[in-house]
């Protein structure tokens, strides 16, 4: 069933990680039926929020929006970055896993990356109402739960002791931070060559 594991990682994550571990690990099962759909949530909601709802700055009455063409271009780029990011993070997890686990060499990195990023994708619903403080609070809560899922899921999914799993998860968090900084740098480059957002005001 499409997205059948999403409810489980919120309601009973330990048992759900066990279920995911027992299933065949394929891109179709975990990536194409989960990550591709989930990554569309913040992209679509963001497009609607910045083109139809808009936002204000400070106490002013001016409502800022993006043009439909500019928003579409940026949301497509964002969607592409998210789905590529899940694959890259998953491959990093599989690469590092060879150092931490024993005889089981089944590649489960993409599955781990897909489900640990699910809260971040789902919180993209708040982009329908682009208010900075609200979006930031929801994003921080989602990030905290994603990190929790990572630390909880690695020992189960990779079948390694919790002590080693903690070190493993910490390395993945560091890689994630590096990827985020790289994404910011790429964004700056794209904007600097004239492909940044185009605003309208009312």
Labels describing this entry:
two-stranded antiparallel sheet, 202 residues, 9 helices
Give your account of this protein's structure.
The chain is mainly alpha-helical and 202 residues long. 74% of the residues lie in helices and 3% in strands. It has helices at residues 6-11, 13-22, 27-38, 40-53, 68-100, 109-116, 118-122, 132-158, 162-195, and strands at 64-66, 199-201. Strands 1-2 form a two-stranded antiparallel sheet. The radius of gyration is 18 Å and the shape is elongated. The relative contact order is 0.15. The model has no long low-confidence stretch (mean pLDDT 86).
Q: What is the strand and helix layout of this fold?
A:
Blueprint: H1 6-11, H2 13-22, H3 27-38, H4 40-53, E1 64-66, H5 68-100, H6 109-116, H7 118-122, H8 132-158, H9 162-195, E2 199-201
Antiparallel strand pairs: 1-2
Give a short synopsis of this structure:
With 202 residues, the protein is mainly alpha-helical. The protein is 74% helix and 3% strand.
Name the assembly state: single chain
- The average pLDDT is 86
Overall shape: elongated
Ends distance: 44 Å
| Relative strand content | under 5%
Number of contiguous helices: 9
Low-confidence segments, given as residue ranges, are none
Structural class of the secondary structure composition? mainly alpha
- DSSP helix fraction: over 70%
Helix/strand order, N-terminal first: HHHHEHHHHHE
Please describe the biggest sheet, giving its number of strands, its sense, and whether it closes into a barrel: 2 strands, antiparallel
Strand order of the largest sheet: 1-2
User: How many runs of DSSP E, i.e. beta strands?
Assistant: 2
Radius of gyration from CA coordinates: 18 Å
């Amino acid at each position: 069933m499409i997205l059948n594991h999403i409810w489980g990682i919120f309601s009973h994550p330990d048992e759900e990680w066990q279920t995911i571990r027992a299933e065949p690990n394929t891109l179709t099962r975990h990536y194409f039926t989960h990550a591709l759909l989930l990554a569309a949530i913040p992209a679509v909601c963001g497009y609607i929020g910045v083109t139809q709802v808009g936002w204000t700055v400070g106490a002013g009455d001016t409502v800022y929006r993006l043009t439909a063409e500019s928003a579409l271009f940026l949301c497509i780029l964002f969607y592409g970055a998210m789905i590529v990011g899940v694959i890259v993070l998953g491959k990093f997890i599989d690469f590092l896993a060879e150092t931490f686990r024993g005889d089981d060499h089944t590649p489960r990195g993409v599955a781990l990356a897909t489900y640990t990023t699910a809260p971040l994708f789902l919180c993209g619903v708040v982009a329908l109402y682009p208010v900075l403080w609200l979006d930031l609070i929801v994003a921080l809560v989602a990030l905290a739960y994603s990190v929790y899922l990572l630390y909880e899921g690695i020992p189960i999914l990779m079948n390694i002791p919790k002590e080693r799993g903690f070190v493993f998860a910490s390395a993945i968090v560091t890689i994630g931070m590096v990827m985020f900084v790289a994404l910011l740098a790429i964004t700056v480059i794209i904007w600097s060559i004239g492909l940044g957002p185009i605003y309208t005001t009312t």
